[in-house]
Amino acid sequence: MAFDIIIQVDGASDDELIAGAATVEVCERIGEPTTYQLEFALTDKDGDFPYLVDARLGAGSELTIATSVDDQFDVLCKGQVYGQRIYLEHNVTDSRLLVLGGDKTFEMDRTIVKKVWTGVKVSDAISSILSPYVDSATVDPIATKYDDKSHELVQVETDLRFVRRLARRYGHWFRVATDANARTTAYFQRPALDGDPVATLKINAATDTNIDAIEIEWDVERPAVVTGDQLPLRGKDAFAGDLDRSPLTPLGSLAFFDIATNRKQLRVVAPLDDAGDFTPRSEAALIEGAWFTRAKGRAAVRVLKAVLHTHTVIALNGAGTRHSGKYVVSAVRHVIDAENHTMHFELIRNAWEA
Predict the structure, then answer these.
(1) What average pLDDT does range 140-165 have in this prediction?
(2) Distance between CA atoms of residues 286 and 20, nearest Å
């Protein structure tokens, strides 16, 4: 049985699957679906392998993968099984099954939709798309409205690809998450960098170090300034989208723009009707460009006493004056076996300390 793991089938805890799971992996990454992988040892029964024909592990079965820390239920992923990998050895010894699944965004990526969104704000269109897939949606307002007198908002793709395209365009992050009450919420928001860190990673501490190593790299050859101009569809008065700083709160005293003295320029070109739609696209480019510092390492849940998730802010202590401080968790690979829950994490940062 994997360490402190909970497996639910259609919302009900399944003790047999919990006992049978040798390892569990859940992979989270900003901008990508969250996926899970469950490993089971295969056994021979009456000339067949029961797990291979078990409907609980078959296509479309909805599983919830969760863990607990200090008796707090923490959902790592909820969604349908989409595949299996089967390893068979002679005499069945060491034969195993890997069950593959992913979150609700997989359901959003199945049907191509052809639709012209007209007379609605972008954020209202996104809310309308998300509502059939989740229990609730939190969508930051985007005032841009498309209509038949200007450029129209055309969808000829799956709902997932359309929503992710708009997220990149307007500098938002899109994700789905399930809470302890089994309610799944979709989030379409600008990165939230204010507030207290959800956990603190400590290295080189005298008594309470909770990570053994961390690798940090930075690269300032990234877009720091946006330039661009455009003519409206029905007019000759050009408008500009020039911008020289990310709108997000810097996670340190010196923002990327202040550090990158030889600033790389990026030209934004898009069919637009007014400066009101140009500015958020310029902001989106600089939000992405400003993540110039990256770090990676691993932590054990039993030592950190917290479960890391993407899109959250954590603190790093003991990495020197410049590189200690707040970071955003950009990826986590949870590896859970019989003894440990290990988190291989990746971090990003848009600033450092003076």
Answers:
(1) 89
(2) 47
